[in-house]
Specification:
Organism: Sphingomonas rustica
Number of domains: 1
Protein name: DUF2846 domain-containing protein
Keywords: Signal
Order of helices and strands: HEEEEEEEEEEEHEE
Number of strands: 13
Helix content: 10-25%
Oligomer: single chain
Shape: globular
Length: 173
């Protein structure tokens, strides 16, 4: 009897875990879109074309959602004197960064700091989603890899954020 119960418990565990493992394998995404395969993406502000041959293109985006709608998602790169604001995204905004190939660390901060390290290659386009998650006292900004299809589904309703000359603030086009 004990053997039958152990076998049943093991079989139930495998039956539950197998679909979860298969789902994880199916949801693996590629975050770079090679320039040769890149079809332009239309947005409310214009069109995002393929990356230049000598630069990497990073599209930071934040969907227009009710969760954290009043909070901004400021993405930065570098530390100390080299710190640069890359994007300041409200809900339904995106920003495009043309960067030198190589290692880049993008981060956002609020209740906690969230960092994402990327190895960028020339001629490729990368997508980074900024989202607002639950925090203890306020929302928590997070950056995570995304893909072209996820961005393209939301793109028609999104406005581009463009950094103003000489400042951190910007307007949408």
């Amino acid at each position: 009897m004990k053997t039958a119960l152990r076998f049943a418990a093991i079989a139930a565990t495998v039956a539950i875990a197998a679909p979860a493992l298969a789902q994880d394998a199916a949801t693996t995404t590629t975050i770079a879109a090679p320039a040769g395969d890149f079809a332009p993406i239309k947005t409310k502000s214009g069109t995002i074309a393929a990356a230049p041959a000598d630069k990497a293109q990073v599209v930071f985006w934040r969907p227009g959602t009710l969760i954290g709608g009043a909070m901004g998602c400021t993405v930065r790169e570098g530390e100390g004197a080299q710190e640069v604001q890359v994007a300041r995204l409200g809900a339904g905004k995106y920003a495009v960064l043309f960067a030198e190939p190589g290692k880049h660390v993008f981060w956002t901060t609020g209740e906690a700091t969230d960092r994402m390290t990327m190895e960028l290659e020339a001629g490729e386009t990368y997508f980074v989603r900024c989202s607002i998650g639950m925090g203890f006292m306020s929302g928590r900004a997070q950056v995570s890899p995304s893909d072209r299809d996820a961005f393209a589904k939301k793109a028609k309703g999104m406005k581009q954020w463009v950094k103003k000359e000489g400042g951190d603030d910007a307007d949408a086009k």
